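Narrative of accomplishments. A recurring question from our advisory board has been how the design workflow behaves on a single, concrete structure rather than in aggregate. To address it, we present the structure tokens for one chain from the evaluation set, followed by the sequence designed for it. No filtering or post-editing was applied between the two.
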């Protein structure tokens, strides 16, 4: 039996050990997007943020990560991806300590923004280094699946880990988790991770950096404000400005001899469809999970730790399905895997439409587990398809684009679904709160379910119980409506993906692309 001398080299123990180090920051970057879900009540009581400040505390991290991923991926291609990982890990650890001991809403918002910058430095370089460590397509597919599992599991484990910590410590403890978690990467990353950079990167186009960063941030801000406040002049202007900036960015890339990002990759239908699917699944997962975390506490009455533990089955289901799918995707066409996962997730969202105020806890747990089991393999395969189209010298930039779509989708999911749910909650409570409440009490109880709990504590027992019943029913209604819309979106997306990708080969059949400059030290 002869060996194929043209076959790419297979990874050994050192490469797999390097992958283990890369899984840590991938998990933590995504975990910080959802880590505060269960900490909102404690954080609100301690720092007393306004409604707008609370939204920025939860949103600003994801917005900065999304806005900077493409830029940091490109810089990593130029300066060295291992160097970017090590810089990002050190910065993430330091700023996490700052966030943990924030003494005001403004300080926490600033710390969360800086965490977003550090997270954007880490994320694309960890994914692009996988294409350097694993040149064999089959091994690369497994490695990316493991990375994606870690990435998505981080978002799912955020509320779980946060719930356990909040049971014993104050809300700032959720940030201090980064210190011991990042330590192995800081100690051993320089030995186990190869350096990689583009040997001929060309000049860095600062105008493109400005257009991409400000375009994403402005567009996201405008969308968030429009959904929350309606068709006001300022948010609509922000949306228009963001769209103009991103359009200018695309046009500049098409004209440039050495573009900041090769937008012609979107002509590859597998690349474009995978990115759309990644952003949609991230939006739905993050947004609905944000509601589920609050539903378990505010509607079902569970403690943060117990609520976090009840979210473990969805994590386990997602991890198991993505690991199983990592072997299937090498033999089965992406269209089949995508469509199957999307339909399984749609079934999960369908179950969540039954999550009323008096629903059995199993309805939410099973529905959420099916959601994760369906969408996580889709995300893993989508990432593999995207990275398989990337030339090695620009893998960091493409990784930045892939993660931008997911981070942006997740941040928008929390903002849009959260705001829509809040609107449904306010409309429902305005019709169902007891008449004994004063105007100020009714306004407060109708703003958030957390405020309704505070109002109920100040009322006679019978009236307080009516307030809580109305608040729980209104919040559950918001979850049900969002779940129904999500299920419909996924069914339509499954049909579109099946049609567009019907001739795309299995992921394991995609040829590796080599190039760039590697060094083991």
């Amino acid at each position: 039996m002869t060996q194929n001398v043209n076959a790419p080299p297979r990874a050994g123990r050192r490469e797999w050990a390097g992958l283990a180090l890369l899984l840590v920051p991938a998990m933590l970057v995504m975990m910080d997007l959802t880590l505060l879900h269960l900490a909102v009540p404690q954080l609100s009581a301690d720092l007393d943020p306004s409604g707008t400040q609370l939204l920025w505390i939860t949103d600003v991290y994801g917005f900065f990560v999304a806005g900077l991923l493409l830029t940091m991926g490109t810089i990593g291609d130029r300066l060295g991806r291992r160097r970017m990982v090590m810089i990002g890990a050190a910065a993430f650890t330091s700023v996490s300590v700052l966030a943990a001991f924030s003494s005001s809403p403004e300080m926490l918002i600033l710390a969360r923004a800086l965490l977003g910058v550090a997270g954007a430095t880490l994320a694309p370089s960890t994914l692009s280094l996988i294409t350097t460590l694993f040149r064999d397509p089959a091994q690369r597919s497994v490695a990316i699946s493991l990375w994606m599992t870690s990435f998505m599991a981080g978002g799912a484990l955020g509320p779980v880990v946060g719930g356990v910590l909040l049971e014993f410590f104050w809300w700032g403890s959720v940030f201090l988790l980064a210190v011991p978690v990042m330590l192995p990467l800081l100690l051993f990353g320089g030995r186990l991770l190869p350096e990689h950079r583009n040997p001929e990167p060309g000049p860095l186009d600062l105008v493109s950096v400005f257009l991409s960063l400000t375009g994403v941030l402005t567009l996201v801000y405008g969308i968030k404000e429009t959904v929350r406040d309606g068709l006001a002049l300022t948010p609509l202007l922000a949306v228009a400005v963001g769209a103009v900036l991103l359009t200018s960015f695309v046009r500049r890339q098409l004209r440039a001899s050495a573009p900041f990002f090769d937008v012609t990759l979107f002509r590859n239908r597998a690349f474009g469809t995978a990115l759309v699917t990644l952003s949609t699944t991230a939006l739905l997962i993050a947004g609905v999970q944000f509601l589920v975390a609050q539903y378990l506490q505010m509607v079902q009455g569970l403690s943060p730790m117990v609520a976090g533990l009840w979210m473990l089955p969805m994590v386990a289901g997602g991890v198991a399905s993505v690991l199983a799918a990592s072997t299937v995707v090498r033999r089965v066409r992406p269209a089949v895997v995508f469509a199957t996962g999307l339909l399984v997730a749609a079934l999960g969202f369908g179950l969540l439409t039954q999550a009323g105020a008096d629903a059995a806890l199993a309805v939410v747990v099973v529905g959420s587990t099916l959601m994760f089991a369906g969408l996580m393999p889709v995300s893993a395969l989508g990432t593999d398809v995207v990275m398989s189209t990337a030339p090695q010298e620009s893998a960091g930039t493409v990784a930045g684009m892939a993660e931008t779509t997911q981070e942006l989708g997740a941040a928008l999911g929390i903002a849009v679904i959260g705001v829509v749910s809040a609107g449904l909650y306010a409309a429902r409570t305005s019709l169902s709160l007891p008449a004994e409440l004063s105007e100020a009490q009714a306004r407060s109880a109708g703003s958030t379910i957390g405020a309704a709990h505070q109002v109920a504590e100040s009322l006679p027992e019978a009236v307080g119980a009516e307030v809580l019943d109305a608040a729980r029913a209104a919040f559950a209604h918001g979850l049900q409506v969002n779940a129904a819309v999500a299920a419909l979106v996924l069914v339509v997306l499954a049909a579109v993906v099946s049609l567009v990708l019907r001739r795309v080969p299995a992921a394991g059949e995609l040829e590796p692309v080599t190039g760039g400059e590697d060094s083991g030290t």
